[in-house]
Structures are given as C-alpha cells and as structure tokens.
Amino acid sequence: MRIGVLALQGGFIEHIRMLRSLQVDTFEIRKKEDLQTAMDGLILPGGESTVIGKLLKELDLLEPLKEQIQNGLPTFGTCAGMILLARKITGTDTTYFGALDIEVRRNAYGRQSGSFFTEAPFKGIGAIPMTFIRAPYIEQAAPEVEILSEVANHIVAARQGNILATSYHPELTTDSRVHRYFIELLLKDSLIPAEPVFIPII
Ligand code: GLN
To answer: What residue numbers bound the domain in which 8 lies?
Structure first.
C-alpha cells in the first residue's frame, strides 16, 4: 500500500512521519510527474488552503487529482485539506476538489485566538486529542455524510464514502488512531473477492 501526500505547502512532513510510524509507504506529490506513481490513498495536509489551491492550479495538479478523487481514490484532508475537499466554502464561490458534500467555514474560530487543543470523541474510536490551528468547521453536511466528531456543537470530522476530513490535526499528536481509521477505509476499498476454494476429492 502506498499513500501520496500533497507536499506543496503546510504540514505534510507530520503526515509522512505518522504514516511511516504505521509502516505505510508514502511519497510526496509536488509536481505533475509525481502522479505517475500509483497510489492507494491521498492525504491533503493543513496549511493555507488559498495558497495550496493556487499552487494546485499553477502546477496543473488540480484537475488530475480531482479526477482520481472522483474515481474513488480514498482521500484524507486535515484542516486546509478539508477546505480543499469541500463542495462549498462559506462566503465564496471558489471550490477546489468539491468532493465532499459539506459547507465549510474557514478560520471559523477566528484568525488569532483560533488555535486550541481539546479532547473529544471520534465515532467508533473514542476520545482523541485534537489540535486546532485557525481551523475551519463544517457548517452543513448532506445526509450521506457521516459525522464523526463534534466540538461545541460544530462538526469537526466527517466521512463520505472513502473521503475523510478533519478540522483538527491528528498528525500533530502521537495518537495515530485517525490515520489508522483512514488506512482501514483504504484496505476495505482494496479488498478483492476471495478466491474460490477448491476442496480436493480424496
Ligand atoms: N486557516 C487555514 C485556511 O483557511 C487552515 C489552517 C490549517 O490548515 N491549519 O486554509
């Protein structure tokens, strides 16, 4: 299994470290040629969504990645990565991958005082540490979107099919359970039907 990590700007190194600690093979996506490497999953890190979005367009990466995501590539976006995945960004008509049926509000906790740490439940996992850095939250989610975490009545983690997004940064903690959750989605996706079993006639 190999996971591509978008490495144009922001906190991609931390995702790579987390994946390596889980023995997962990774590679950085910086330019179009990097997409020649086949991937089983994609991580969109935190950073500045406007900067990453601009670079994605300039480097001709937006459309080919969008196509792969639309074709079912399991994708995990943290913070700015969540914004890149959203179908709608509050207050603007700009969208990037538009693959997750959510509306996100950027810098939803304010720009300056908007960084904090808390612990809250992640559905099916239990309480996990959550680091928020000028984070977005989900204003609205379509019925087919599964809500995975809420903090103070705001949705901060969600999944639709094999697209996962968190407002917070699990890669900045030592708790790898959210990354494991993503890897499990990916493994489910690649499950091939069992070979028929031939019982020898003795
Ligand atoms: N505020 C950033 C944005 O809007 C996201 C911050 C982050 O990724 N930590 O893109």
So the answer is: 2-188
Residues whose CB is less than 8 angstroms from the CB of residue 83 and which lie 6 or more positions away in sequence, other chains included: 49, 77, 89, 96, 104, 106, 136
Q: What CA–CA distance (Å, rounded) separates 104 from 141? A: 9
| pLDDT over 50 at 194, yes or no | no
Catalytic residue among 14, 15, 171, 179, which? 171
Query: Residue range 26-37: average pLDDT?
Result: 98
Domain with residue 84: its CATH number is 3.40.50.880
| Residue 195 token pair | 């070979």
**Confidence class of residue 188 from pLDDT cuts 50, 70 and 90?**
confident
Instruction: List all residues whose CB is within 6 A of at least one atom of ligand 1.
Output: 46-49, 79-80, 83, 106-107, 133-134
8 Å CB contact between 140 and 103: yes
User: Can 63 be counted among the known catalytic residues?
Assistant: no
Of all protein residues, the one whose alpha carbon is nearest to atom 4 of ligand 1 is 106
Q: What is the pLDDT of residue 111?
A: 72
C-beta of residue 155 within 8 angstroms of C-beta of residue 137:
yes
Cβ pair 7, 30 in contact under 8 A: yes
Q: With contact defined as beta carbons under 8 Å apart, do 149 and 123 qualify? A: yes
CA R_g for the chain:
17
- 193 CB neighbour count, 10 Å cutoff: 5
- Residue 84 forms part of a structural domain: yes
Q: pLDDT per residue over 121-149, tens digit each?
A: 999 999 999 999 999 999 999 999 999 99
